[in-house]
Specification:
single chain; 148 residues; 0% strand
Length: 148
């Protein structure tokens, strides 16, 4: 059995019988699920749990980064599945790099979720029309009528 962490193993292209190994299928399931979850959260960043603890813009930016990482992982899986090696993109090292990046991203998100839940919910933003708002409610100007 070869060492999966050796440079010779990581910089080689998998053989045709190794393309759909158990690890490759697990990689595809995890990265497809991660891409799907990241796209749903980026689209619906104002769900009750997320908006209670996080602002919308940072959540969308983080999920955009997650979609890039999981999307590139799916791209490298597709290169492996098609058994092509353009510009050495079919080597095993790229899937290993994407796995490490996904683990780092998930740990970073977990740390921020734990810190946010310990901090407690965000204060409610002052509404434009509330008495505590940043200025008085705007008044409507009357429609200018033309005299004929």
């Amino acid at each position: 059995m070869t060492n999966p962490f050796s440079l010779n193993f990581l910089t080689s292209v998998p053989a045709s019988d190794e393309v759909l190994s158990g690890w490759a299928i697990l990689f595809a399931i995890v990265f497809a699920g991660g891409f799907l979850v990241a796209s749903v959260i980026a689209y619906r960043a104002q769900t009750p749990f997320i908006s209670t603890y996080f602002r919308r813009r940072p959540v969308q930016q983080c999920m955009s980064l997650a979609m890039w990482i999981f999307g590139l992982g799916l791209f490298f899986f597709l290169i492996r599945l098609l058994q092509i090696n353009p510009f050495t993109l079919g080597e095993r090292i790229w899937m290993a790099v994407m796995t490490v990046l996904a683990i780092v991203l998930l740990l970073w998100i977990a740390v921020h979720v734990v810190l946010a839940t310990r901090r407690g919910p965000l204060p409610k933003a002052a509404s434009r029309y509330s008495p505590q708002g940043y200025h008085a409610a705007p008044t409507r100007r009357p429609v200018r009528r033309r005299h004929t």
